[in-house]
Design a protein that fits this description.
By secondary structure, this protein is α/β, with parallel strands linked by helices. Helices cover 38% and strands 13% of the residues. The strands form two sheets. A seven-stranded mixed sheet has the order 1-7-6-5-4-2-3, sandwiched between helices. A five-stranded antiparallel sheet has the order 8-9-12-11-10, with helices on one face. The protein is globular. Bound molecules: pyridoxal-5'-phosphate. Pyridoxal-5'-phosphate binds next to helix 5.
Length: 430
C-alpha cells in the first residue's frame, strides 16, 4: 500500500485515499485481464505497422493537394490491416466523430433509402444528422427516411421487431457499440456480430455500420471482424491514443470507403487528395500507444464503478460487469452531485485544474451539458474527462485518462469533492 503523502498534496484526505486503496486491491484479477487484452492489441498494432512498412518518411509534412501523400496512404493501410477491413479513410479533414458518422451515412445513402437503427435512439448529435430533430442539411432533407427499434427493457435486442422493421427501402443499418448518453448496456463485439448475422440473413445486401466510438481496443476484436461493413470513430477518442490532435476514421468495404472518400473530398478526387499537413507522426504514435492508453482508461472505469457502487450509487456498467467501452456512467441523482463530481475531475487535470466547470448549451445537444476536461487536446475524451446532461437522473459519464494513475487520482478527487459538499452519507469516509 502506498503512503498518502503525495495524494495529500492533491487535497485527498487519508480516509478517501485508504478507501481507494482497499478497492484497488480487490481489483487485481480484473486489471490483469485488461493487461492481457492490451498486450494482444499492442501486437496487433505493431504487426499492422510492420506489414504496412511504416518508415520515417511517413511523418513528413505534406501540403497542397496532397497527391501521393505517403504518410496518409500508409496510415490508411495500417488501420485497414489492424481492423481487418478492405480499405480505410483516416483523415485530419474529418473533424470529429459526428462528422465521420455523418460522412459514412450521407455518402452511402441515396434519396429514397431508409436508415435503420435496431438498437434504439442513436447518440445525441446524430439526431440532427438524421433529421430526428430538424436541422439544415439532414438526411431527411435529402429524402432519406429513418426508422428505429428500441431495445427490450433488459437491454437485449428485440429480434422479432427488428425482423418486422427491415423492409425493401432499408439500405443501411447503424449499430452504436457504446451506450453514449443513454442508460443501456454497451454491446460486446460478439453480440454485435450476432445482430449483424441476423440482419444479413433477412437482407444480405444491407450495409451494417458500427459507431465504434470509445470501443476501439477494449476487446481483442473489432466489429469489422464479425461482419460489420463499416466501423467509424473519432481520433480524439481511443485510436488517437491522446496524441492525435484532430481526426476521424471510417474503415470497411472498398465500396463503402470509395463512397465516403468521394463525399469527403469530391467525386473523381476521392482518396487522392487531402494533404496530411504535420499531424502524421502523432496519428501513428497515438495509434501505437492506444492499446495501453485504453487499458488505463478501462482500469479507471472499473475503479470508479467499484468506488461509487459501494457508496450506494447505481453504476452502468455495474462494478462486476464485463466491459465493452471505456465509459462509466454513475447515476448521481442531483445536479449538485453532478457538478461536484465534475469539479473533482477538473481539479485533477494537468491543464486548467483551477477552473470550475459550468453547464452550457453545447452545439448538437438538446439539454445543457456540464463537462470537466483539462486536456492537452481540446475536448479530447480519451484524456481524463467527465460530462453529463443536466437532466434527471443526473448521470455523469466518466471516461479516459492517459494513464491509470491519472484516472485514479481523478476519481479519488471526485469523491473528495462530493465529501466536501456533504453529498455522501457515509460519516466513516467523509
Ligand atoms: C463521442 C461519440 C460520438 C460523436 O463524436 P464527437 O467526436 O463528439 O462528434 C458519436 N457516437 C458515440 C457513441 C460517441 O461516444
Amino acid at each position: 500500500m502506498m503512503e498518502n503523502n503525495i495524494y495529500k498534496d492533491l487535497g485527498i484526505s487519508d480516509r478517501v485515499f485508504s478507501f481507494g486503496e482497499k478497492i484497488e486491491a480487490e481489483l487485481k484479477d480484473r486489471f490483469e485481464a485488461f493487461d492481457k487484452t492490451a498486450e494482444y492489441n499492442q501486437m496487433k498494432v505493431l504487426n499492422a505497422m510492420r506489414e504496412a512498412r511504416v518508415s520515417s518518411e511517413c511523418f513528413s509534412y505534406a501540403s497542397g493537394y496532397g497527391y501521393d501523400d505517403i504518410g496518409r496512404d500508409t496510415l490508411e493501410k495500417v488501420y485497414s490491416i489492424c481492423f481487418k477491413t478492405e480499405d480505410a479513410l483516416v483523415r485530419p479533414q474529418i473533424t470529429c466523430g459526428t462528422h465521420a458518422l455523418a460522412l459514412a451515412l450521407m455518402s452511402n445513402l441515396r434519396p429514397g433509402d431508409e436508415l435503420y437503427s435496431p438498437v434504439g435512439r442513436p447518440y445525441d448529435t446524430l439526431e440532427e444528422v438524421i433529421g430526428i430533430r430538424p436541422s439544415r442539411g439532414s438526411l431527411k432533407e435529402y429524402g432519406i427516411s429513418y426508422r428505429e427499434t428500441d431495445l427490450l427493457p433488459d437491454g437485449s435486442f428485440d429480434y422479432p421487431a427488428i425482423k418486422e422493421a427491415i423492409n425493401e427501402k432499408t439500405k443501411l443499418v447503424t449499430i452504436q457499440r457504446s451506450k453514449g448518453y443513454a442508460n443501456r448496456p454497451s454491446f460486446s463485439v460478439q453480440k454485435i456480430g450476432e445482430l449483424i448475422a441476423f440482419i444479413k440473413d433477412i437482407k444480405p445486401d444491407v450495409i451494417c455500420m458500427v459507431d465504434n466510438c470509445y470501443g476501439e481496443f477494449v476487446e481483442d476484436k473489432e466489429p469489422s471482424e464479425v461482419g460489420a461493413d463499416m466501423i467509424v470513430g473519432s481520433l480524439i477518442k481511443n485510436p488517437g491514443g491522446g496524441l492525435a490532435p484532430i481526426g476521424g476514421y471510417i474503415c470497411g468495404k472498398k465500396e463503402c470507403i470509395a463512397n465516403a472518400a468521394a463525399r469527403l473530398t469530391s467525386p473523381g478526387l476521392a482518396k487522392e487528395v487531402g494533404a496530411s499537413l504535420s499531424v502524421m507522426k502523432d496519428f501513428y504514435q497515438g495509434f501505437f500507444l492506444s492499446p495501453t492508453v485504453v487499458n488505463g482508461a478501462l482500469k479507471g472505469a472499473v475503479f470508479a464503478a467499484n468506488i461509487y457502487e459501494k457508496l450506494g450509487y447505481k453504476c452502468i456498467p455495474d462494478a462486476k460487469e464485463s466491459r465493452h467501452d471505456i465509459i462509466q456512467a454513475v447515476i448521481l441523482n442531483s445536479p449538485e452531485a453532478l457538478k461536484a463530481f465534475c469539479l473533482g475531475i477538473q481539479s485533477a487535470a494537468p491543464v486548467e485544474s483551477f477552473v470550475t466547470p459550468e453547464p452550457w448549451d453545447m452545439p448538437g445537444y438538446d439539454s445543457q451539458v456540464i463537462m470537466a476536461a483539462g486536456a492537452f487536446v481540446q475536448g479530447s475524451s480519451i484524456e481524463l474527462s467527465a460530462d453529463g446532461p443536466l437532466r434527471a437522473p443526473y448521470s455523469v459519464y466518466f471516461q479516459g485518462g492517459l494513464t491509470w494513475y491519472h484516472a485514479k487520482a481523478g476519481i479519488l478527487l471526485s469523491l473528495q469533492k462530493l465529501c466536501d459538499a456533504n453529498l455522501v452519507k457515509d460519516s466513516q469516509l467523509c
